[in-house]
């Protein structure tokens, strides 16, 4: 059979042979990359995030609208995402969780250099999973103080006593102290104030950061300052009136309501001994919130460590780096006994109560603000739907300036989180309160 030469056919054949030999400069088209599903923008209930923020905020409630090319594991970010990372490694410097449409405004108040081992929840999906932990329908976030009850109606070791009355159902909530301010009372006058119960939900989760929020009246005037720390499964707070309520005592002297009430709200650990048995022992580190001076609004973080022995069902610990009024009630005493000091000439008694000037008394108050305090053992109990602890009988111990070991005050609280990852509660001596929280140290 004779083939006829066809120039066109030869050209096609040559091109085919070249392609088969791999000598072409044209590469084979790559398979199409899978599409990345970018999480939708998350908004919190108070709509408090800045509309122009291009980086993810600390509470993860809103993501950049320009992050359309963000990859799932944060392997590469779009240049328009303003360096937003999927794991929340960078936070917006401009938000600070400040509320724009509410008078409850958050500001970053203090951050320590003593980080705990807890996870920083900044991813919006992770944060939502935490906030909706008590509501599978994802309609109600638990981290909301919807009302304030009288101290007699709440119990730090039994925070579900009034379940649903001060916070969403299932959330453990407690408040203690005088919540009055000049002209009103938080327990009775919330309807007269511009108060956003979601201010904790809208703030950053950072167990080492003291944050500040204000509650105002309808004219925008601050009536109460709130200082708080958000842990993953709990928040603890201290309150202080901007202008304290004044009243007259039995002798006609003006008295100010100057104590700083404490509070907490948490996802309580289930009342299940098996959860604790898996740990055997655990160490928790965190902070206390205390007022540096009862005449001002300068709140600071102290350090706290709590050791839990789940075989003995006891906890104990210590508070260091204090700067608060917790031991003010003991500043008038020389040691463990009843001998002490007074600035009132009529109250002075030779041999028992020495007369000193007000300046000297202020020095004693100042010295007692920084003394190290031990938390003596408290029993861990599983009751009332929570895992709690409480010591009401001289639970705090410190060394007085005469070297006496002085016992005073009490402390109580609960374990928080599905696996008892956190502790939250209050410490008090006399009418002085400090709130505290701590996160389990991972070994």
Describe this structure in words.
With 443 residues, this protein is mainly β. The protein has two domains: 38-95, no CATH class; 105-327 and 369-440, Porin, CATH 2.40.160. Helices cover 9% and strands 31% of the residues. It contains four helices and 23 strands. The strands form five sheets. The protein has an eight-stranded antiparallel β-barrel. Strands 1, 2, 5, 6, 7, 8 and 11 form a seven-stranded antiparallel beta sheet that branches. A hairpin with a 2-residue loop joins strand 22 (422-429) and strand 23. The longest helix is centred in the N-terminal third of the chain and has 15 residues, at 7-21. It is globular, with a radius of gyration of 29 Å.
Structural class: mainly beta
Q: Terminal Cα separation, in Å?
A: 85 Å
* CATH architecture label of the largest domain: Beta Barrel
Number of strands: 23
Number of domain units: 2
> What's the CATH topology label of the largest domain?
Porin
Question: In a few lines, what is going on in this structure?
Answer:
By secondary structure, the protein is mainly beta.
Secondary structure elements and pairings:
Layout: H1 7-21, E1 105-111, H2 124-131, E2 172-176, E3 180-181, E4 184-185, E5 193-194, E6 209-217, E7 222-230, E8 234-241, E9 246-248, E10 254-256, E11 262-266, H3 273-277, E12 281-291, E13 299-309, E14 314-320, E15 340-342, E16 353-355, H4 358-368, E17 373-383, E18 386-391, E19 396-399, E20 405-408, E21 410-416, E22 422-429, E23 432-440
Parallel strand pairs: 15-16
Antiparallel strand pairs: 1-6, 2-11, 3-4, 5-6, 6-7, 7-8, 8-11, 9-10, 12-13, 12-23, 13-14, 14-17, 17-18, 17-19, 18-21, 19-20, 21-22, 22-23
